[in-house]
Amino acid sequence: MKATIQASYIDGSFIEPHGREVMQSINPANGEVIGSVTLADETDAKQAIAAANRAFASFSRTTKEERIDILRRMHKAVSAHIDDLTAAMVLEYGGTRGFSSLMMQGAAEVFQQAEIALNNIEFVRKWGTTTVFYEPVGVAGLITPWNANVLFLCIKSAAAFSAGCPVVIKPSELSALQTQTFLECLQEAKLPPGILNVVTGRGDVVGAELVRNPDVSKISFTGSAPVGRSIMRDGAATMKRVTLELGGKSPNILLDDADLATAIPNALLIGWMNSGQACAAGTRLLVPKSQLETVKKAILATLPSFPVGDPSDPKTAVGPMVTRKQYERVQSYIQRGIAEGAEVLAGGVGHPKGLEGGNYVKPTVFVNVHNDMAIAREEIFGPVLCVIGYDDEDDAIRIANDTQFGLYGFVSGKDADRARRVAARILAGRVAVNGLLDDQQAPFGGFKHSGVGREFGTFGIEAYLEPRAILG
Ligand code: NAD
Question: CB 3.0 to 4.6 Å from 408: which of 5, 280, 355, 420, for a disulfide?
């Protein structure tokens, strides 16, 4: 049975949107229509912004304790529905069961981590005869992509609520079912009406309205670099505060003392997590030239533990691409890599055998890649790993930093001090040493074209605050 998906949630209720465009929701694993959503439009967005503004008057004056109470209720509601949220991510997005379940556990944890961070923030700071009050910036517009929609909804709303800002969320139109599942489970949190409003519609319609509307004070956006740039430009007219979490082409440096038995499985995990549709993926594997042959053999030996297939199968490591368009995009990059002279060690163009009915691509490893090639410079957003040889440590760092992006970096090596020294020379918002590590109190965000501002921890909450100093 096809689901009828609700696009608008305003002032604490699902409402019939003013928008009339109907979009079908397609299961990327088999192309079947699973539901339809009538998309919201500018009128719906304006209604949601008005509701959030009404809520601002009281919500902006809530105490830390009241905000913590909201975070706890949200944590409880999301924790109670991890299985439902996981199922929606598998069905609508094609996320693998294992990864989707981890994402949803992370999404629930976001609220507990926000509570810790909130407790670490002093909203009133004094010295001499000066007092600085940290005030909520106003209504926040939250715009999210399709690759981890519910996680981003949780990260952004937890930070905004910690600061006392009501939100209007514009989720990806490709995540309507996941958003509805999230809103249904949030009913149990009994949020004050108007602090969380959702309008699912097109980016250039609903997203653009949030960006230009003078009653929205801040935009927190996760998505592609071109849209991020347009938000910065168009938001300037109303002097929007912006946090932009954009793409990446993250380097993963294998130092010459790395333990390949762990570093190679980690490299495939880091490169292909979320089926390669991950902004933080380490898609450039930098290897000492003297070890290239050994690394190639180690990669081939590890591939069987990364099976591609049905995302609902718990053993699957790589699922389908979200849409046919994304499938075509990944195909075009694989063709381009071959045309540029890179060598296919594994994978290649076309569907994996027996998986022709969905948006599946072959997890692909390119060797003999030069950092000037498009496959090494542009974000592909699919399971395509580029192996690049380097001469020495300085050369590795030069190649790692020779990119317009700077979201994440990874370094592996037995000598952890040396690995940390190398990590400190990578121009990226986060660098993980020996593995795929996360810390929800650590700042997350990018250098260079990977974005502006940071999320998580006190960094994430302060991005929704405006300091006001009273002197004397
Ligand atoms: P996208 O930029 O196309 O869309 C992201 C969101 O912006 C969607 O909700 C979309 O509807 C909306 N949007 C589109 N045009 C808009 C406009 N003119 N004004 C306002 N909003 C608009 O990205 P996507 O294809 O959904 O997601 C993939 C991209 O997201 C990749 O480039 C990836 O690197 C990036 N990403 C970054 C992070 C991070 O934290 N840095 C995380 C996940 C994804």
Answer: 280
Catalytic positions, written as ranges: 245, 279
Query: DSSP assignment of 372-387, as one string?
Result: TSHHHHS---SSEEEE
Domains of the chain: 3-246+448-471 (3.40.605.10), 251-433 (3.40.309.10)
Cβ of 201 closer than 6 Å to ligand 1, yes or no, is no
Contact 393, 411 (CB under 8 A): no
pLDDT digits (tens, 9 = 90+) for 199-243: 999 999 999 999 999 999 999 999 999 999 999 999 999 999 999
Whole-number Å distance, alpha carbon 165 to ligand 1 midpoint, is 22
Contact 347 CB / ligand 1 (< 6 Å):
no
Q: Is the CB of 245 under 6 A from ligand 1?
A: yes
Token couple for 447: 């250098």
Calculate how far, in angstroms, residue 228's C-alpha sits from the geometric centre of ligand 1: 8
320 pLDDT more than 80: yes
Q: What's the angle, vertex CA 465, arms to CA 459 and CA 469, rounded to 5?
A: 115
- Nearest CA, atom 39, ligand 1: 245
